[in-house]
Amino acid sequence: MVIQIWRKAVIIIRLMNSESNKSSSSGNSAVIVIAIGVIAVVLGALSWVYLKPHFSPAGQSGVISESSLPKEIASVYIPNGRPLAGIRLTDHNNQPFTEERFKGKWSFLFFGFTHCPDVCPTTLLVMKAVWARLPAEAKQAPEPQLLFVTVDPDRDTPAILKAYTTYYHPDFLGVTAEHKFLDILANQVGALYGYEDGDTEDSYTVNHSAQIILIDPQGRFRAVFSPPLQVDEIVKTFVAIRKYHKGK
To answer: Which residues pair with 62 in a beta bridge?
Structure first.
């Protein structure tokens, strides 16, 4: 269902781009950019609504029920998160990044690309503000890390990723992978993306979902923050998740 919605959204964007090419006015271009951003937000939310039941099978024997969760985290928390496996990424320092590097940290994941005109810069600015507002205890071990996962590995080299992510915060880490390994990670956390041709071979764009994924210190898919992303809400919820997780 989500894939079908995604394909229809790509068709809509192609039609809009076709109309945009007929007129070079800045007003039309702005409308296209806004529309793509809105579609990314909506797809992120729809993806989460559809995929959450698959990651949190409440009601099964020995499984935590969503109704038993604290209200502060119930809307984002995945009670029975599955461990990530088969992760073969490369970070922006050209170092291997496997599932072992999720261990011992709270990992925020955002899927995007450095040529992104709006959603990615906005989201990274939100997460920069989150980092600034996290209380001291939320930065202690297991400390948080933010991974910017490129959905455009052909253009986003490690060097480009490093310059881009560290511009927003020196601790943010860009990661890339071959397409087959990128898909392995994306499929496990419900992230969606698709390519849209541009006027030239290198001017294509990438349409992608806009949620923030949270991986726990055991390397399990643990929460999803869906747009619209609000700094104070992310901070409050993350602190509550840490508290709940520690008390389990």
So the answer is: none
The residue range of the domain holding 93 is 2-246
Any idea how long the chain is? Answer: 248
Please state the φ and ψ torsions of residue 31, each to the nearest 5 degrees: -60, -40
Q: What is the pLDDT of residues 83-123, one digit of tens each?
A: 999 999 999 999 999 999 999 999 999 999 999 999 999 99
Residue 247, pLDDT score: 74
pLDDT band at 199 (very low <50, low <70, confident <90, very high): confident
Residue 83 gets which letter from DSSP?
B
Q: Total structural domains in the chain?
A: 1
- Residue 52: φ, ψ to 5°: -55, -45
Q: What is the mean pLDDT of residues 141-162?
A: 97
CATH number reported for the structural domain that contains residue 17 in this entry: 3.40.30.10
Is the pLDDT at 207 greater than 90? The verdict is yes
Q: Which residues contact 125 (CB under 8 A, 6 or more apart)?
A: 168
DSSP state of 102: G
Q: For 234, phi and psi rounded to 5 degrees?
A: -65, -45
DSSP-H helix ranges across the chain: 2-21, 26-55, 119-133, 158-168, 179-189, 231-246
Contact 88, 40 (CB under 8 A): no
